[in-house]
Design goal:
The complex is a heterodimer of chains A (394) and B (100). Chain A is of the alpha/beta class and 394 residues long. Chain A is built from 15 helices and twelve strands. Chain A has a domain of 184 residues: TIM Barrel (Alpha-Beta Barrel), CATH 3.20.20.70. In chain A, helix 2 runs parallel beside helix 3, helix 9 packs across helix 14 and helix 10 packs antiparallel against helix 15. Chain B is globular. Classes of the chains: A alpha/beta (394), B alpha+beta (100).
Chain lengths: 394, 100
């Protein structure tokens, strides 16, 4: 496209600094179109069987989703993320996709790619999503992929979907779980990822898997817990990134400090995630029935302006949390949050030993604490962060 | 179309979505090939926004300029130059269709 512009300015997604006057109430919307999935991944926190008729009958219908999208657009929302479960299981996915795009939103599509059809790939090429499609990869060969996905033949369908995306020049990236028995395929995955046009960095990996986010299956929880990377493995993976130390220096200066007794020091409730049944959550993880808002009864605007600010005021009185997490300067590094606490313990404020271990292992690696030191007992944390941020990258 | 003239009528293309959010006019390309890449947005400055809001598919650009002369204190020649400059730029980008 030719020439400089006098009257308009071009903006890329990472520089959407548009708002001269006031930010819109809603920047990005997440919608889980279904909790059903055509995979049955061993590490997944949310999937229900694809033929779960009860779940399907409770899902938002097309008109309801369109109404939520329209409300979101009216609130200034520029990006919607369609996720699940597997969102492509919805028969109205293409209709919802095109509807969102014609409202002037970009669409982020999370998928395993197994259900990509020539028609869908052609649509994504003709009306590009505006953001890359994010495809989860569960292995580089049928044996490993089908083992993770719990479905025979899944790998072949995944590769067919990928081939269609490539054939139609649909922009996509890949990401995946870091499971112990997939480690030997890491090099192959990363070499392949380099051939994907939009992959300008290595795939993102999940490794500290969430437990079942509906607290619906203790047996699966036990299995997920065993699949998690150890704290030391987590640090080893993170530090593979040559920019890890540099990035962490900036991050620690900006974001690390004890959170005190206020539970929501994160961004939860400034945006929203709509679950498959029309409940507005403060974030993608927090499904505690006491802290979701039914969009059959109130508007998205009301949830954002009235309900969530009230819920965000929650403070802890749990002595254990107050003695540990509230005092701990690793907040920011640690993934402890009300959503994860609810998944693990059914409360918003119970320390999660696994996440605490991961955060301490990172802090030890970065030199912020010493062996066996508890970060919540460290008084001079500001000095330590300052020293770390001034250290040479070696 | 590079040669936009005052007797033409301009209307937003179906290939984009124009949105006004918190006072900013945002143009979101919809169809592949509009914009340099498929992940861009465009913001329009205040001059462009004032012109865009007058493009109703009925008025010629001369009538658009005349309406803006009534509203703003800038010299008429300057406003006409902006109307032609802006609509040329937007037409070249595929954001506007010009007819007539």
């Amino acid at each position: 496209m030719d020439g400089l512009m006098t009257y308009a300015k071009r903006l890329k997604p990472h520089e959407y600094k548009i708002w001269q006057r006031k930010r819109p109430l809603l920047g990005q919307l997440d919608i889980e179109l279904t909790e059903r999935c055509n995979n049955n991944c061993i590490h997944c926190c949310i999937n229900l069987p694809e033929d779960d008729a009860a779940a399907r009958s409770r899902e938002m219908d097309t008109a309801f989703v369109k109404d939520i999208l329209t409300q979101a657009a009216d609130l200034g929302c520029l990006t919607v993320r369609f996720t699940g479960g597997e969102p492509l299981l919805r028969e109205d996915l293409t209709e919802l996709y095109e509807f969102a795009r014609r409202l002037g939103m970009h669409v982020i599509l999370f998928t395993n790619a197994r259900l990509i059809t020539p028609e869908l790939a052609a649509l994504l090429a003709r009306i590009p999503p505006g953001r890359v499609v994010e495809v989860s990869v569960y292995g580089m060969c049928p044996e490993s992929y089908d083992r993770v996905a719990g479905r025979k033949g899944a790998f072949v369908e995944f590769r067919r979907g990928i081939a269609l995306l490539l054939q139609h020049n649909v922009p996509f990236i890949v990401k995946g779980p870091m499971l112990a028995f997939l480690k030997h395929e890491l090099a192959e995955l990363e070499t392949w990822a380099q051939t994907i046009p939009r992959m300008d960095q290595p795939p993102g990996y999940s490794m500290n898997f969430d437990l079942r986010s509906r607290r619906d299956d203790p047996a699966k929880n036990a299995r997920i817990a065993k699949l998690r990377a150890t704290p030391e493995e987590t640090v080893a993976m993170m530090s593979r990134n040559p920019l890890y130390l540099r990035d962490m220096k900036q991050f620690c200066r900006k974001f690390m400090r004890p959170p005190g007794d206020k539970l929501f020091s994160c961004g939860a409730g400034h945006g929203t995630c709509i679950d498959a049944y029309g409940k507005a959550q403060m974030c993608m993880g927090l499904r505690d029935p006491e802290r979701v808002v039914d969009l059959h009864k109130v508007t998205v605007k009301s949830a954002l302006k009235e309900s969530f600010p009230r819920l965000r005021e929650a403070r802890t009185t749990n002595p254990e949390y107050l003695a540990r997490c509230a005092q701990c300067f690793l907040k920011g590094l640690c993934e402890q949050c009300p959503a994860k606490s609810w998944m693990e313990h059914g409360t918003l404020d119970t320390p999660i030993e696994y996440l605490c271990g991961v955060a301490h292992a990172q802090a030890l690696y970065l030199g912020l604490i010493t062996e066996n030191e508890k970060a919540w007992e460290v008084d001079n944390w500001r000095e330590r962060i300052e020293l770390f941020s001034q250290r040479q990258n070696t | 179309m590079d040669n936009v003239t005052l007797d033409m009528v301009c209307v937003p293309s179906d290939n984009i979505v124009a949105r006004e959010i918190e006072g900013e006019l945002i143009i979101v390309p919809l169809i592949a090939g509009i914009g340099d890449t498929d992940d861009e947005l465009y913001t329009v400055n205040d001059t462009g926004k004032a012109i865009w809001q007058k493009l109703d598919g009925q008025r010629t650009l001369a009538q658009v300029a005349a309406a803006l002369v009534q509203e703003f204190s800038s010299p008429a020649e300057e406003i006409i130059a902006d109307v032609l400059g802006f609509t040329s730029e937007m037409t070249r980008r595929g954001f506007l269709n010009a007819t007539g």
